[in-house]
From TrEMBL:
Gene3D superfamilies: Amidase signature (AS) domain. It comes from Streptomyces piniterrae. PROSITE patterns: AMIDASES. Keywords: Hydrolase. It comes from the Bacteria. Pfam families: Amidase. This is Amidase. GO terms for molecular function: amidase activity.
Amino acid sequence: MERNFQNAEELAAALRAGEVTSAELTDEAIARIERDDKAINAICVPDFDRARAAARGADQARARGEDRPLLGIPVTVKECYNIAGLPTTWGMPPQANFMPAEDAVQVSRLKAAGAVVLGKTNVPVGLQDIQSFNEIYGTTNNPWNHGRTSGGSSGGSAAALASGFGALSIGSDLAGSLRTPAHFCGIYAHKPTLGLAATRGMVAPPAPPLPVDLDLAVVGPMARTARDLTLLLDVMAGPDPLTHGVAYDMTLPPARHERLGDFRVLVLEDHPLIPTGSAVRAGVNRVADALVDGGARVERHTPLLPDLTEAAMLYRQLLFSGSVARFPVDSYEQVRTRAAALSADDQSLDAAVLRGMVFSHRDWLEANSRRELHRHGWRQLFAEFDAVVCPVTPTPAFPHDHNPNPLERRLDIDGVEYPYFDQLVWAGLATMPGLPATAIPAGRSPEGLPVGVQLIGPMFEDRTPLRLAELLEHKIGGFQPPM
């Protein structure tokens, strides 16, 4: 395989063996970006001069006998992370010139591990879309079909990896923002357990980089193999050294099993609130068949599964109660008026959004109490199962849709249209209770687009879905470069 598409583990071995230098890897990655990224638009803020300098420093460090987990490996970083000397905009035009003074904690960890940062990858405005486009940096295209989205909000990172622009990337996930782009672009991503990896410096400008414990949102790794996800997660995991890190270190338990045949897996392909498209259903069943063939215990139903409808409603309420917290007062009052007019019988997803947008603190505490009941339900389920396989979204990557009113957008599922944001119910399944979830490639659609699934695991047992992802990669294949 062309060196730009080799995984980080292979590149690290080549560097250790003296078969290649970091300077050579970095020059090759930059050359590929300069050649191919005009059509993809994944790298929105290149940092090539500093990357070349970092690569030379990595080679010098290796010559001195140093060896760090990512020493000399070219990587990219999602635009929403602060990097000193580069703009952080979150795609918001008023912040086009915002320049942070210090690196985000995860960028610092990447550099401490020896990574060479090539630049930043594109995002949607405010990270609030399932596509990646904004007025500052334009639209990121799917490497498999330029008329389709690469996903959001880590769409630039997924497109970069699928295109051979660096071996690893870091992103974030609140509404599937790691998993959906991975699914759309045919790569791997891992949404860690809530709180596992520090988020300081991954903050909307011009807010200061404070060590805040986020609700729902996480930062996590993206890669072209499952083992590379684990490698990068080990660099990212751990509490913020300004807060919890003063008192403790993070030690993840090992994976529950090493052999595919020892896993107990629940497979879900249907959601009560939105259908699963035929291409994604085929991907789920391809993974299920591989599990059965490998000797795993596979079930399709269990009374232990928390109620999917209530889970989706709770996710919507918790998600939107946070996203509108800084609405202007007049806008907030308009939403409150609309919410007050809802019928008590209206239990739709849209109604859950409106109610969540005007939550009182009392309302939020009640929703959080119900979330704890769901977490308890998941603990009971994971006493009987090791992982859950399910869709990431109902469809492969959809055509670009830049309608400025997202509520007017529609998602085509096998010829039938559904509200655009209803596709988030699958992402919320892991996000609402804070569970780890690994997105893996699971084949191609009839149109040749990548299809992925997610493997949801027990809280703080991130190595379990990651190990299952690695075993399935050997069984059904993994990343393939776009054709």
